[in-house]
Amino acid sequence: MPRSTISRRNLLRTTALAxxxxxxxxxxxxxxxxxKLALGxxxxxxxxxxxxxxxxxxxxxxxxxxxxxxxxxxxxxxKDLLTASAEAQARAGHDIMSHRAWQIQVHRNVLExxxxxxxxxxxxxxxxxxxxxxxxxxxxxxxxxxxTVGSQVKPCCSRMDLYKQHCGIDLTAIFPANxxxxxxxxxxxxxxxxxxxxxxxxxxxxxIGLPMGQTSDAIDSTGAMFRAFxxxxxxxxxxxxxxxxxxxxxxxxxxxxxxxxPPEVYAWDDAGNNRxxxxxxxxxxxxxxxxWAVAKRxxxxxxxQCWTHDMPRGPAGRFVGQLPFFYGIWSFSQNKAAAKDLLxxxxxxxxxxxxxxxxxxxxxxxxxxxxxxxxxxxxxxPSGTVxxxxxxxxxxxxxTGYPARPDIATQIYNQSLxxxxxxxxxxxxxxxxxxxxxxxxxxxxxxxx
Amino acid sequence: xxxxxxxxxxxLAKPAFQRRAGMRQFVRRRTxxxxxxxxxxxxxxxxxxxxxxxxxxxxxxxxxxxTRFLGLGNFSYLLSxxxxxxxxxxxxxxxxxxxxxxxxxxxVTAHLVNNLPSKGQRKWRGMxxxxxxxxxxxxxxxxxxxxxxxxxxxxxxxxGFGGTDVPWLSDPYWARFSVILVNVWYGAPFFLIMYLAALxxxxxxxxxxxxxxxxxxxxxFLHITLxxxxxxxxxxxxxxxxxxFANFDIVQIMTAGGPRNMTHVxxxxxxxxxxRSGDLPLGAAVSLFMFPILAVSAVFILRGxxxxxxxxx
Lengths: 449, 313
Description:
The complex is a heterodimer.
Chain A (H helix, E strand, L loop, with lengths): L7 H17 L10 E8 L6 H16 L1 E8 L5 H12 L5 E5 L2 H5 L7 H11 L4 H7 E2 L2 E2 L2 E2 L5 E3 L1 E4 H8 L3 H4 L8 H6 L2 H13 L12 H13 L16 H13 L14 H7 L5 E3 L3 H9 L1 H4 L2 E4 L3 E2 L2 E7 L1 E5 L6 H12 L1 H10 L16 H4 L17 E3 L7 H9 L2 H10 L5 H15 L3
Parallel strand pairs in A: 1-2, 1-3, 12-14
Antiparallel strand pairs in A: 3-13, 4-5, 6-13, 7-12, 8-9, 8-10, 11-12
Helix pairs in contact in A: 2-17, 5-16, 7-10, 13-14, 20-21
Chain B lengths: L8 H20 L1 H30 L13 H7 L2 H33 L3 H16 L2 H12 L5 H8 L11 H29 L3 H9 L4 H29 L3 H6 L11 H11 L3 H9 L1 H23 L1
């Protein structure tokens, strides 16, 4: 019988080493260490979309022995903003929070830099949308990781039957559900043609519906229109630029366009334009495919005639409002390494594919290399209806307030200066010069240090 | 020379007993009991009102990143903005108009209910209190649906009678009217119940004496009811003024301050700047603007109440 070689001294040494390893293990900042991660995530409006995110997080958690818990927080009543603000002030709460567009800049002082994650993602997936970079980067450091969930652009969603019948425009020919666009045809889709067709549709009893209130749909699409005319409020070097011929040209254009909208657009919230299209009264809005998706459920006949396509081109180019969402890791998180690993996992192409599919194509990743997901080709009716939702041609994503410093731009955006200017001119019948002067005064105030 | 005091066991027991008796006496004192019973409330008030109030004063003196002390910089900045002056004007219009109509409707309704036979009065009192009992966020959503910019139920009715649509929420002046209307609907029952209680406490003999002297109903109201209710009216108005000035839910749900910022009140504008635009110190400064306005009105109203109290006393 072999004799045991374990001496009392060896036993003691082994036990001491094992105890030391056990004690130090929880402090290893590595995702494979057992630990917990708490996420506060935007509550998706698409039924079932949250389940896919939960499934992916659980898969990752099981594989990495990390206990992941998720709180889905609605953006109704800005509850997500309130939660993030409270956690930032209290320096306590979740490890990861999802933030809407500007909130990364708002909370960057309490967010962990995530350059390592971005670097790894860019190496695999290629460049990130410039709008996301503008919103999440500060002094060369990234403070947020663009999410697939919730991120969106707001192109045109039009009734193709009404455009064909009353304006003689075949939107499916200009923007087909494939990559074989005719550039000459695409060039015809300008703000001038949009105005002309808006008048025809109005006369036919199916007005377009551009929200002109103080919520994000209105702010995003109006900002993109101003940009198409070359209008800038404040440039990147803090120079006031609002008092320009471009701003005046944009306001003159709105003065012609707004009478062809229903008068209640000045009070619409983000659901107002959706309801307008779904009700069958409206010929077109500027929105992600949420309006189409609800129409598919509530008014399938309208949904079958909806076609999502590029924004018109203006003198300065073709711009579409983009509203990316981000994940941020709080600097007070106890498990930053695991948080980074999870976010990298969620941002990879395969996971993004599943998330896009779960949202029926509503979620738009910030990587252009992900625009080949088949969801945008598959969902219907009609076949190919949201194929052109991701910007595929000369359409450039932008965000209202750009190119001002994000600190300034967030205020331009959230205080709705663009839509208020339009409302003052078109609803309040104020002279353009006075409105420009008003905007200049407001902007001077925003530049205070 | 040092005096040495000898202590015997019997002598030692006495001070301990006296201490216990003193403690018992202290606890038995009415003021102490009152203080102890109020202590939980004092802790809650200190934790949830005084501390946040002091913290918001501190916050209002910082820059946007909360890294630099600005003193009164945020306040002077706000006072230099046209939009903020518009918010002050709108808050005053909103609060004063709403409180006036709440008081008026409350007074009239209280009289009507008071004159109902006592048998059915309880039912009416209950029904009229309903708007005040429903959670405000819920009832305001209901009103929002009634005023919905595109599918307003009121407009549907108006069209049914051959009228044209009213831009309840899309025209700034109609929007102001709508938010004030909802505030009056919500707040009038509070005035009603307070005034009703005051009416019931007016001695019947005064009315009988006035009637014998030949006073008509209007004279009785002017010379008996109104003077007897003055203190309740003043306190109710003060309380309502504070609550209405600080109102957030109604405006936020119905208009979010639009169109053209023309329905913003202090609370919604503070939310816009502090939470949505990420400038918490500026938001705190906006909300603190209510404080001096309300403090001054409280001083005047309470001084009147004290004066009348002394006259009666």
